[in-house]
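Researcher: Go.
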Amino acid sequence: MSGDIVGVWEVSLSDGLYRIEFEHGTTTGKRVIYINGKEALRRDWMFKLVGRETFPVGSADTKATINIEAINGFAYEYTLEINGKHLQTFLDNRSKISKTWVLKLDGNDCRIVLEKDTMDVWCNGQKMDTMGEFTDDGTETHFAVGNRECCIKATTNGRKPSKIVHSLLVDGIRIEEAIE
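Model: Structure:
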């Protein structure tokens, strides 16, 4: 990576956290995108200095676009869109449809994500095999991480209007949700 990095963004997806860096050589027309430090896209000698670069992020090939706009003279503004939404809008929506827990299991860092709209569960970037069941007070989604028994319970908070509360239990112990 050279000294032409003009934009850095952190993106949280179900399959992991991604650091996106954008290098823009305004004299050479070079555009380079790095994802977690690895080169993902390179274009040399671009004569048009403004425009868009679209590329996939993560194992689900989530669509990301960097917009390059001239603001005056040779000053540029760089914005990131994920799935067609400005990054902050995407992250705000994501926080409504997913829950994330970060914990250590057997000495290893674990990031467990529940996608509330599909009930898919991810652990460190891998979609987990799950088994769901209905209970008297909601639902339970069971899965294993290594030899650990995990369960995400979905219950109502008992108030009107009711709100669904998701809790992760590992070997029967409740884990606090992470703030991302």
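Model: The two ends are 27 Å apart (CA to CA).
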